[in-house]
Here is the input.
Amino acid sequence: MHLTEIQNEIHRFVISNFLYGQSVELQANESLLEKGVIDSTGVLEVVTFLEERFGITVEDNEVIPGNLDSVARIAAYVDKKITCPI
Amino acid sequence: MRHGLPPAALQCSIPSIDAFRFARKDANRKEDRIVADRVPYSEGNECSPMCGIAGQINLNGAPTERRVLDAMIGTLLHRGPDAHAVHLAGHVGLAHARLSIIDLQCGAQPMSTLDGTVWITFNGEIFNYIELRDELIAKGHRFATRSDTEVILNAYLEFGEECVQHFNGQWAFAIWDTREKTLFLSRDRFGVRPLFYTQVGNTFLFASEIKALLSCIEVPAEVDLFGLDQIFTFWVTVPPRTAFKNIFQLPQACSLTVKDGQVTVGQYWSISYAEAADAQTAGETRLAEELYTLLEDATTIRLRSDVPVGAYLSGGIDSTVITALVRKIAKDRLRSFSITFEDAEFDERSYQQEASRFLGTEHSNVSCSSSDIARVFPQVIRHAEQPVIRTAPAPMFLLSQLVRDSGFKVVLTGEGADEVLGGYDIFKEAKIRRFLARDPGSHMRPLLLKRLYPYMQGIQRQSAPYLQHFFRVSMEDLSSPFFSHLPRWELTARLKKFFSAEVRDAVSSFDAIAEIERTLPSEYHRWSYFGKAEYLEAKYLMPGYILSSQGDRMAMAHSVEGRFPFLDYRLVEFAARLPATVKMKALDQKHLLKKAFKGLIPESIVQRPKQPYRAPDGKCFFGLATADYAQELLSPEAVRRCGLFDSAAVTSLVAKFKSGRASSIKDNMAMVGILSTQLLVNQFIHNRCEEIAQCI
Here is the structure.
C-alpha cells in the first residue's frame, strides 16, 4: 500500500470518527491534540483502528504523540510498521 | 394582559376541583378569599410542606383568573400530592400543592398571618423553625400552628425582607404583603428548591417548575440558544437563564420583589473563601471536632419531621457519615436506600452492604440496567426541564421511586460534601496540573494522573507523553481565573460542533466563559486556587445539576424530599475558611472529614479510592427495546425538524454508536446532550399541550 493511500485512509477515518463527517479543514501535519480532534480515549480508538485495518501491532511504548499526533505522522508510522514490522 | 384559556388538551385534563371537599376560610379582608381543595389527609398529624408552588400578579391590577392558577398548580401535583389549594386576592393569586411532612393538620397553604394581611405559598423546610418560633414569641408574635410556614410569616412581619437571613433551610416561597402591595419571592442559599418566573405583558408568573409556567398558553415555549450554549459548556445554564427563552430562574441566595410594577432581584447572602494567607490556622484535631459538631447539629435539625426519615447510602464516605449521624441521633430503626448497577464498572453494592451492616440499617436497593436508563430517560427530561450531558439523573429517578414505594417521603443524603470539603476529582486534577506546570518536562509527574482517575480505562492505558499533552498547562492557563475548570469546559464546548449552522450563527458572538467572568465577585481574585475551584463548583454545577437535574427534580418526581446536612450554611461558611491543605492533604480528598469520623464509619470506606457517581451513558440508547424512541428522535428528519443540530453529524455519531466504536467521553456526552435536547423540544415545544396535560 502506497504511503499516500495510507494517509488518505487515515484522513477519512479521522474525519468520520472524530469529526463526525463534518467538512472541517484538517491539514495532514496539523496536531490532532492541538486542534482538539481527539481526547484521551480517542488515542485508543486510533490504535484500535490501525491494528484492525492495517494488521499491525502498536506497542505500548509506541503510543506517543511523535507517532500518532497528526494524519501525516500516523501514516508514516503505519508505513514503517508495514515495511518493517519488527 | 389576561391569560387565555388553556388548550383543549389541558382543559379536559385539569383535575375536577369541585370534586374535592370545598373549604372556605374566613379571611379578615373582604377581597381576600381562599378557595381550597383539600384531599383528605390519609394519616396522622403532620404539618409542614415539601411542595409545589405557583402564582401570578397582574401588574395592571386586573383580577387573576382561577383557571390559570388551577392549570399551573395542576402540573405540580407530583411535588405535592397530599392537597392543593389556591388563594385569590384581586390581582394576585397564590397556589400550592402540598406534600405533608410536619404538623399535617395545620400547615395548609396558602397561609396567612393571623390578621390576614400577609399571605405565603412555600416549598421547603426551615430547619431552625423551632428556635425562631421561640424567638418570635418572645418578641410578642402569636401562632395558630406549629408549622415552619407560619414561622416564615411572622419572621417576615418582624424582620421584613431581611427575614431570610434568619433562616437555616431549603426554601422557595412567595409572600404577598397586602399592606405594602409587594410580592416577595425568595430562594435558599444553595438553590436546593427551584423557583422560576416569567413575565408576559402585564402578567408576572412564578412556579416551582417550568411546566407550570408553560401551562399558560401565552407563555412562549422556545429554546434559549444562549442557554443551550451554556449547557454545552458548563453542563448547566447560568441563572437567571434557563433552557427556555424568557423563562428565568431565581438564582440561589436571591430574593425578588414585585412592587409598583417593577421587578427587582437582589442577593441576600454570599460565601467568602479563604485567601491564601488568611485561612483558619487552628490544629487539625480541633478543626475536625468543630466539623463534627457542626455536622451533627446540621443533621439533628434536618431530622425534624412528623414522618419517617430515611437515608441514601451510596457506599461513599459522605452518605455513610450522614447515615452514621442519623443512626446516632435518632436511635430508631433506620431505613437506607441505594442504587446498584448491572454493569460492574459503576456498581458499589459491596460498599453499600458493608456500610449498612456496620451501621445496622435496614437496607433496600434498586437495580439499574442500561435498559432501565433508556426506559425512564424521557420522564427524566420531563422532570429535569433542561438538556443533560450525563444519564446519571436516571438512576436517581429510580431511587426516589424505591423510596416512595417503601413509604418514605424524606431522605437525608451526603450531597454538598464534595463541594465544600474538597472531595471532587476536579480539585485534585487542578492541584496535579499546577504541580506539572512547575516541571513541564517531567515524564514522571504525569503518571500521577493515573492515580487521579483509577476508574477510567482511557486514562490508565495512556503513555506519559500523552498524559502530559492532555493535561498540559500553559502560562495562559495558569493565569486564568478558571484554571481548575477550563479542561472540563473546553472538552464540553467541543460538543458545540454538533450545533446546526443556524444555531452556530446565532451564538457566534456569545462567549459563555467571558460572560461569567464578568459576574465574578470582586474578592474572587484574592481567594486561594482551591477556593476558586470550590466556588465555581458550588456556584454553577451544584445548583444547576447536582441539586436540580440529579437532585430536587428526580426526588420530587416521586414526591420525595431530599435534605442535605453538608449544605447547612454554618458548615459551609466554616469550611470555606479552612485551609486547602486540611481539606485535601497531599492528594487525600476530604481529609478533615475522614479525620472527624475516624472509627465511626467502616475503615474500608474511608480508605477506598473515590469513585464518583456515574451511570452508563450513550450506549444505553442503542440495541435495546426500551430505546426505540431514541432512534426516532435521532433520525435526520427529527433532527432537522428540531433545527438545533447538524443532522449529518448526528447521523455519523449514531452510526458510531451502532457499530460499537463509540467509547470516548466526548461521544457519550454528545449523544446524551443531543438526545436530551431532542426530548426536551419534543416534549415541551412540539407536543407542548399533550405533555403538560400528562403532567396534570
